Amino acid sequence: MSVLDHLLSPLKVRNMELPNRAVMPPMGTNLGNDDATVSEAYLAYISRQSKSGAGLIIVEVAAVHPSGASIDSELGIYDDRFIEGLKKVAAVIHEGGGKAAIQLHHAGRESSFLLRRGEAIAPSAVPSVVYRQSAREMTIDEIKEIIASFGKAAIRAREAGFDAVEVHGAHGYLLAQFLSALSNIRDDQYGGSIENRARFTIEILEEVRKSVGDDYPVSLRLSAEEFIKNGYMVEDLLPILPDLVKAGADIIHASIGTHGSPAGITSAPSEYEPGFNAWRAGKFKEVVDLPVISVGRYNDPAEANDVIARGDADLVAFGRQTLADPDYLTKAKEGRPEDIRKCIACNQGCIERLMAGEGKIRCAINPETGQELLYPKGPAKVSRRVWIVGAGPAGLTAAYEASRLGHDVTLFEKEENPGGQLRFAGIPPNKEVYTDWMNWLVAQVEKKGVEIKTGFEVTDEMIEEGKPEVVILATGGQKITPPIKGIDLPMVVDIWQILSGEVQPGENVVVIGGGWVGMEAADFLIDAGSKVTVVEILKRSPVRKLFSHGYMLHKRLRDAGAELLLNTSIESIQEGSLKVECEGKEETISPVDQVVIAVGLKPCDELKQTLLNKGIRHYVVGDAAEVRRIIEATEEGAKAAWDL
Ligand SMILES: Cc1cc2nc3c(=O)[nH]c(=O)nc-3n(C[C@H](O)[C@H](O)[C@H](O)COP(=O)(O)OP(=O)(O)OC[C@H]3O[C@@H](n4cnc5c(N)ncnc54)[C@H](O)[C@@H]3O)c2cc1C
Ligand SMILES: Cc1cc2nc3c(=O)[nH]c(=O)nc-3n(C[C@H](O)[C@H](O)[C@H](O)COP(=O)(O)O)c2cc1C
């Protein structure tokens, strides 16, 4: 029996025959046109994602009513004019060999743009936890109108060629707002008991079933647990599940979380294990006899297979994993799971990018995602002799892409080991996945036949002698030593010395710099038993709690009793203590036996002048251009390679 037998076995749901049990769950991309129609970029994206070979591809949220979009470019399915574009979506999904579903959505109060315009509607006028604004309470007529709009949307989906629809009852959107006692305080037949709060979802399912007929499959996505203070738990849902099935659900998609759930549990960070949510799907299966989809951090088809084998679920969804590597299933089927680029759950290019309004979907470790229209298939017309200087994420990604396109690549790294800052990024607690990704990247570059010349520091003379045709400068950042009295004392070290184990953590430690790296260093020190104070000059922590890993970092530091001093600058360091100015007042921190510098880096781009002087074509990418994050490093590394 193969390790994938269960995952790869077919499944029939009403008239839909799925070739296997891998699912791509709905993921909003922000790739739609401003008028809510399907864009070329979206088609290219969904076409590539569908090549995963997953049995079921569920297209992202599509608004069933103009009052229901969460962002203004959300795909629309509330009018016949959308059918033409949606037909193309269903068609490209079918080309990938899987079945196509689309998620029918109403955001209710979780629509910042409609809230701003005063046009958002909800079961009750209770403020959104995230946007802190209330929507207008729906009248019974409006409830009926929205129920009807789900039915009409389902008919459009079927007309566009979709094999199924999914009703979005999860994540704090309108149906979930009705289901939750926190957002539904109505005193009519739609509020009060769980049976009453479920009525809206039940009537929607009945309407959809009536609209599409008996043989058309309908999935219902639910958050198995709200995962918020006083929210509902999985046990609370169990009594209503049979009614939801009776009303028309053929599949239950067991997700988790709501708007405002701590640590963005819906797209859980690396603190959560793959499959952490499977047991809740298993609970559903105890009370209803229909296929259940498990979702949450899956990045390994073999693990997904085990979940199905042990009976917790019938299907498994791979969300961010598909963004990170749409070929994950093919690679597993071909017996080369080590080639899978596993999602690291950083959320940088996907959910948190969308939440922060940073643009359209990307993936921090897969530069193709969201850029399918730019992504060159290769080979390049002209093969260039390219030197890549620096084997951090920018240089390694550039090397991978350039060699994939057929260029003649030499990759230099001055250290004994490749990886750049990733050699340290994977050391703090819960970040091992970064080391896994680094090892994957190094192995893949080597598989492409690129020799990584470690222990080679590229100098002006080497460039003079080697005469490369093009140079990609991916030399990263260099340390900054802040001009503080006492910075030369032996008790002062930097994060690299601590994380690498070169210096043992002290007992009473002050970390200077409360950015991501400083906070992670503090987390590491706490794990090692140190008592930690973090000093940050800014008034607000640069590590935002809105982001899942940021939330977890703040929580762990708080729970461990670490102090985070904001709006504080260091005046001087002396044996045993630090003088600081904290919110305008002079204070002393003591006892202190170790000070760890975590004030960041500045670009290391000295070779640039030589390249300019010699007129050698070059690109400066990643931290060498401006010290930032992994997503910029990989994107710029890739784009330089694509441009060669
Ligand atoms: C502890 C820690 C945790 C982090 N966590 C995160 C995180 O969670 N998310 C995130 O987005 N970012 C994180 N970062 C930052 C992230 O690692 C960097 O932004 C990223 O590595 C930058 O990539 P790069 O390739 O541009 O540069 P680097 O990773 O710095 O790589 C540059 C490489 O060039 C080499 N080099 C320099 N000069 C030469 C030369 N002349 N010849 C040959 N080689 C040379 C260097 O030795 C180095 O290996 C973290 C950083 C640290 C230290
Ligand atoms: C970028 C992004 C957009 C998402 N959009 C939707 C959506 O449109 N509808 C939905 O039900 N869930 C949405 N989700 C949640 C995913 O479907 C999925 O449940 C979640 O990411 C957990 O699965 P994973 O760990 O495999 O990524 C989104 C997640 C991401 C990362």
Instruction: Kindly name the structural category.
Output: alpha/beta
- Radius of gyration (CA) equals 26 Å
Low-confidence stretches: none
Count of discrete alpha- or pi-helical segments spanning 4 or more residues? 23
* CATH class membership of the largest domain: Alpha Beta
Helix content: 25-40%
The gross shape turns out to be: globular
Give the terminus-to-terminus CA distance. Answer: 46 Å
**Percentage of residues in strands:** 15-25%
Strand order of the largest sheet: 3-4-6-9-10-11-12-13
Largest sheet: 8 strands, parallel, barrel
Q: Whole-number average pLDDT?
A: 97
Bound small molecules, deduplicated: flavin-adenine dinucleotide, flavin mononucleotide
From the 3D coordinates, which CATH architecture of the largest domain would you assign? Answer: Alpha-Beta Barrel
Per DSSP E runs of 2 or more residues, the count of β-strands stands at 28
CATH topology of the largest domain: TIM Barrel
Give a verbal description of the structure.
With 644 residues, the protein is α/β, with parallel strands linked by helices. The chain has an eight-stranded parallel barrel with strand order 3-4-6-9-10-11-12-13, surrounded by six helices. The chain starts with 10 loop residues before the first strand and ends with a helix. Helix 1 (40-50) runs parallel beside helix 2 (83-95) and helix 20 crosses helix 21. The radius of gyration is 26 Å and the shape is globular. It folds into three domains: 11-355, Aldolase class I (TIM Barrel, Alpha-Beta Barrel), CATH 3.20.20.70; 385-479 and 602-643, NAD(P)-binding Rossmann-like Domain (Rossmann fold); 492-599, FAD/NAD(P)-binding domain (3-Layer(bba) Sandwich). Helix 11 (301-309) links the parallel strand 12 (292-295) and strand 13 (315-317). Flavin mononucleotide binds at residues 25-28, 60-61, 103, 168, 170-171, 221, 255, 266-267, 295-298, 317-321, 350-351, 354, 361.
